[in-house]
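OP here, attaching both records as promised.
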Amino acid sequence: MSDKRRILVIDDSAAIHQDFRRLLCPERGGSPEQLASLRTALFGAPPARARPAGPEFEVESAFQGQEGVARVREAVAAGRPYALVFLDYRMPPGGNGVETLRELWKVHPSQRVVLCSAYSDYSWEEIVEEFGETPLLKELRKPVNGHELRQLALTLTEP
């Protein structure tokens, strides 16, 4: 069983999926053993206290709302629910993010979701009016700030 924090990105743009993977799953510079050997070769004895690696993310993709809802349903049924879903507001020609959120929460009412978009057909106030003030729902504006994205992912996927 993997210790990675599972994230689903629901967005109609393949480039957005690539960006999320690049920001949340940066290439590791080799195994910890390889890095320790290299550090010892370059600098002598390894430091007394190595800096612990942060959590790793497993990022999966869905390109439309209904596909995302199906993936969440499958993950819950398999006993491996997603820790977090990043959900785009607009996904032409399919349903929008708010419609998808309604369906997601029917399938998995405690699913944490971050709504993402540069534009929205709904104001945040309208969304809060419909879904209520809840720690399960956040908003992230595009273009995405990499540091903000990573901090949201870290905070919202904490066990």
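Record two, same layout:
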Amino acid sequence: MSRITFYHSPRTRSSGTLVLLEELGADYDLELINMKAGEQRQPAYLAINPLGKVPAIRHGDALVTEQGAVYLYLADLFPRAGLAPALDDPLRGPYLRWTVFYGSSFEPAVVDRALKRDPAPSAMSPYGDYDSVIRTLADQLEEGPYLLGNRMTAADILWGSALNWTIGFGVVPNLPVFQRYVERMTARPAFARVAERDAAWVAEHERAAGKA
């Protein structure tokens, strides 16, 4: 199997992807992008993702951007890890639903809420309304312990990371069901390893900036 090249910036959305790579036991080459220094807007990285966003991966001839797509691709690439229901598994549809729901509905809703702006008219809004998004997610997790019941998938790594930072920034309410879920996911060793590595990289970047 070709090695994966993973483009990552510490303490960003791509941190969850790094957790996923660790959970999958994947071999990968890491390309660190210093977003505080603006490296995501330089031609070298814009050739990878013209939007200047992370995460992104290269695997052989395949270049994959967009967070949900990266998770789906990686989890399918390592079926033995058991983090993606197979195509003929009844859980495959719900797994795809909740992975895509994050980028198509949840992120637009929380960004609008963070910026204190109203959603688009209902006929145009990609998510309807903020309260419905939060209630839909909370109702699903009440059936837990994971999004798909007793089975943990790559979608839970995505959502565990996402709820951790959105609750931390105050754009998602810290409902008991969310708190239990975040605690369950972030207690996994892979989350702790990534947090430690991200902190070390950030400190290294700050030291380098101080010497410049």
